[in-house]
UniProtKB/TrEMBL annotation:
Coiled-coil stretches: none
Limits of the BTB domain: 20-82
Protein name, as recorded: BTB domain-containing protein
Segments traversing the membrane: none
Domain of life: Eukaryota
SMART domains, per the entry: BTB
Species assigned in the record: Polyporus arcularius HHB13444
């Protein structure tokens, strides 16, 4: 707490009530003329502070409290508490200090509203910045959401320039848990794609291989990239046995499909996410190659998009079971 200065500090409207009984003075010397009852309702910290005697307060004048937040941060904070227009944050630079102040002063309703503002900024914010800021402020829902988006949309996040300012105070544990999380995602995603070889023949889909009573595979029932014998097979890929006992047939995928799958796996190594950025381009290239085969051309445009759709579902199911180990107690 402090005495008023001999030179009257500027006052920030709309927090300029002449009958105010408390003045909050920002770190950059701007006064906010407020009411104790409003602050006490919004913040348990201020409520407890107002119970303490203030020997420096002059009779008939409002109490003055110096704080470490600048005027812009205080205005954003107070707009959540007072019956005035709510703040419209355009960036994490604006929102971050307000969130930090809301936690510091234990303004729980303000924190809830500002977290919603944080969520609204995620689609356009730097995701690495969002993740690190959410970790420092211990916002579990934002941490989990931003980490998942970071995997999907910014595989080269650690090459970010300039460095997020939070890195200067960021515990090493924050990035360690993200690295572990990313590793689990990568392993699970690659496993789903690798398991696709067996799933192609026996999975729960319309192109599941059918067999005769003697165990002979009905080649027309399965995917065209397994049943076609008119274009080149990929002999670098492990094959599949279809059929039973002596009726078994050894299958290898067509080259155009094998190149598509290898491309998918390359993407998932760098960007382990069910969104598979760049999958559509890989599929178009594969279909362009398949079009040169008279057998593959009619069916590939129907079957490959269906395979891609089902692959995304399987990836989502597998990756949805992976949780981020928070670097703080929830």
């Amino acid at each position: 707490m402090a005495d008023t200065n001999s030179q009257t500090p500027p006052v920030r409207p709309p927090f300029d009530d002449t009958d105010a009984d408390i003045i909050i003075r920002s770190a950059d010397g701007v006064d906010f003329r407020l009411y104790k009852v409003v602050l006490a309702k919004a913040s348990s910290v201020f409520r407890d502070m107002f119970t303490l005697p203030d020997g420096s307060q002059r009779v008939g004048e409002p109490q003055v409290v110096d704080v470490t937040e600048d005027a812009d941060t205080l205005e954003g904070l107070l707009r959540f508490c007072y019956p005035v227009s709510r703040p419209a944050f355009q960036s994490l630079d604006e929102l971050g200090p307000v969130l930090s102040a809301a936690k510091k002063y234990e303004m729980h309703s303000v924190l809830e509203d500002s977290v919603r503002s944080f969520e609204a900024l995620l689609p356009t914010a730097s995701l690495l910045r969002a993740y690190t800021l959410a970790c420092l402020l211990e916002l579990p829902d934002i941490v989990r959401r931003s980490a998942k988006l970071l995997l999907a949309r910014d595989p080269n996040c650690f090459e970010a320039v300039p460095m997020p300012p939070e890195f200067r105070t960021l515990p090493c544990e924050v990035m360690y848990v993200f690295a572990v999380y990313r590793g689990k995602f990568r392993k699970a995603a690659l496993s789903v794609v690798d398991d696709s070889w067996e799933w192609l023949l026996s999975g729960d889909h319309r192109y599941k291989m059918l067999y005769s009573n003697k165990g002979n595979p009905h080649m027309h029932s399965t995917w065209i990239w397994l049943s076609c014998t008119d274009c080149g097979e990929d002999d670098t890929t492990r094959g599949l046995w279809a059929g039973r006992k002596s009726a078994r047939t050894f299958l290898r995928p067509r080259k155009w499909y094998a190149r598509y799958i290898r491309g998918i796996m390359d993407i998932l190594v760098e960007c382990p996410s069910p969104e598979i950025p760049g999958e559509a381009a890989l599929r178009e290239r594969a279909l362009s190659e398949a079009a040169s085969c008279g057998t593959c051309a009619p069916l590939a445009p129907l079957q490959l998009p269906e395979f891609a759709r089902l692959l995304l579902i399987r990836l989502q199911a597998a990756l949805g079971e992976i949780t981020l180990e928070l670097p703080f107690k929830e």
